[in-house]
Write a structure and sequence with these properties.
The protein is α+β, with helices and mostly antiparallel strands. The protein is 23% helix and 31% strand. It has helices spanning 13-46, 50-57; strands at 98-104, 107-109, 112-121, 128-134, 140-141, 148-153, 157-167, 172-182. The strands form two sheets. Strands 2-8-7-4-5 form a five-stranded mixed beta sheet, with no helix packed on it. A three-stranded antiparallel beta sheet has the order 1-3-6, with no helix packed on it.
Length: 186
């Protein structure tokens, strides 16, 4: 390795090369780590269940074998006890309503007519029963939103508009948007 005596002289090309090699090694390590994470993710998603592994590998018996855990939903053999109510077979938890609400324009000069655009989805597919609008200025409505629902804010101020959508089975979701109305000439 050559020694550099004067700091104002340019360093030879071989003195800079180890830094470039270190950066290349770092990039390779990052790529290797990303590949390992990808392989682990694929294994998690596409790995056969334990029962299929046993069919492929044969029964897992021997001194180190472990009794398999019961399958979810499998019947359990329990002693009969009339003093206790029977167990609930399966509890279905409904999925929550998803969606969003946008306002256009979100601010402007009074009187300001705004449109509220609502996208609401019931993943259960049951459907919506009621829509409750509160525009924040004392005006309420129960109109279901088509593509847009319009409202005019006549006085300057900051308003919070809420829409609560309720499904037939009682689940509800509240969407919130703010509107700022400035006085004329402002």
């Amino acid at each position: 390795m050559r020694r550099i005596d004067h700091p104002d002289r340019a360093a030879p090309a071989d003195a800079v090369a180890p830094r470039r090699d270190l950066a290349a090694v770092a990039r390779q390590i990052v790529r290797l780590f990303a590949a390992i994470v990808l392989i682990a993710l694929c294994w998690t998603i596409f790995a056969p269940p334990a029962r299929a592994q046993e069919e492929i590998l044969g029964p897992l018996t021997g001194p180190n074998s472990v009794e398999p855990a019961p399958r979810v939903g499998a019947p359990r053999l329990m002693p009969v006890d009339d003093s206790m109510p029977p167990p609930i077979p399966q509890l279905h938890i409904r999925q929550e309503i998803t969606g969003s609400m946008m306002v256009s324009p979100p601010y402007g000069i009074a009187p300001l007519q705004v449109g509220f655009f609502v996208l609401a989805d019931d993943p259960e597919g049951i459907g919506f029963l009621t829509y409750s609008w509160n525009f924040g200025d004392g005006t309420v409505s129960s109109l279901p939103p088509e593509l847009y629902i319009f409202h005019t804010y006549r006085k300057p101020g900051t308003y919070v508009c809420t829409l609560t959508a309720m499904t037939v089975d009682g689940r509800e979701k509240t969407f919130i948007q703010g509107v700022i109305v400035r006085p004329p000439g402002d």
